[in-house]
Amino acid sequence: MQHEPLPDLNNTQIAFARFSNAELRASYWLFRLMGQPWLVEWGSRLAQWSIRIGLPVQWAIRKTVYQQFCGGETIDGCDAAVEQLAQGGVGTILDYSVEGVEDHAAFDACAEEIIKTIQKARGDERIPFAVFKISGVAPVGLLERVGALPAAHKNELPEWDLVQLRVRRIVQAAADADQAILVDAEESWIQDAIDSLVHDLVLEFNRVKPLVYQTVQLYRHDRLAYLKSTYVQMRMAGCYFAVKLVRGAYMEKERERAVARNYPSPIQPDKAATDRDFDEAVCFCLDHIEHMALCCGSHNEESNLKMINRMRALDIAPGDTRIWSAQLKGMSDHISFNLAHAGYRVAKYLPYGPVSAVLPYLVRRARENTSIAGQMSRELALLAAERQRRKSGR
Ligand SMILES: Cc1cc2nc3c(=O)[nH]c(=O)nc-3n(C[C@H](O)[C@H](O)[C@H](O)COP(=O)(O)OP(=O)(O)OC[C@H]3O[C@@H](n4cnc5c(N)ncnc54)[C@H](O)[C@@H]3O)c2cc1C
Asked: Considering its fold, how many domains does the chain have in total?
């Protein structure tokens, strides 16, 4: 079969079509500033301190990093951002990004908010997935304790019932709304508890179609084998195995903890090993897509293009509803919009919440954009290229 050339991810006209010149300039300057590690470090500390003591800095944050990486302070406040993404053929994943929740009343409130995102998405093709983090609805200490217990003893912890009920309520709401839902992956010491919760849900809710997506982090050296063995388990149980594949976001924390507590690090020896397993995992999912569904959560151009190459080799149509590429709002628009333009399914996480509550998320995004080799210069170079293209009228 003859295929079109691979999508050109460097097409900045498509990537930034929905940006006005003023918006483009603002993003360009923001990424330039975020390229300065000292500024990001001091700026982050100053912002956190100012908010803690009640200084009125929220407007400055709202106009800069918040605007770049978030959708709005409430679900309805994200309407304009949802529509803007939809104009470029890109779906939205409403991500309630509030962190640091610590008691059961707050966990219940967080669960209710997640259910509202599911209801918002109901029947709206612009919002293909809901998402949540288990640590937003369960105490981290409990997850850690449950993860360390043999399966038969988990239910002996009284609080665990409460967590299972809360998580089940969220997923039942997704099932009622016929809305696919992603469960994020977190630190390895709470991930066993998360995986066990998610497996129970998959066994219950993924019988007819892929509804609940488990996240697998390929920066862990054991996860490719885990992906393959879980697939076999799910097949034997007659369920669809839906996965979001990511490289993983907690590498430094994982390595530091392993050294501090003297156990072998769960992380791959180097980036090449993570890349190899990630790409192999994507291929595994595509090869078994009849009984799987895949959301490839990555800003890596090569991995996205490899996914497309494999889809082509397997004669899978670009618009196949079982296969998605996903990025974060404010990052890698060149991947999102160029893939969407070429007919592939693409969605972006759209974090939302009050400025003070999403600040830790914003600080992580700013730090990530200074520290990942190549990533910063890539975003900046693309924004600069588009500004240049518009100036020259090409
Ligand atoms: C839509 C979406 C959803 C996400 N959901 C989650 C989630 O649920 N859980 C989660 O943990 N993360 C999540 N992430 C973040 C993700 O795990 C990565 O941190 C981030 O996307 C960067 O990886 P990359 O594939 O985009 O690109 P790249 O820039 O190619 O890869 C960077 C990643 O490679 C790995 N890496 C870097 N250096 C090394 C090294 N020396 N040795 C081994 N590995 C290395 C790290 O994982 C690092 O983050 C999500 C990302 C996206 C886009």
From this structure: 1
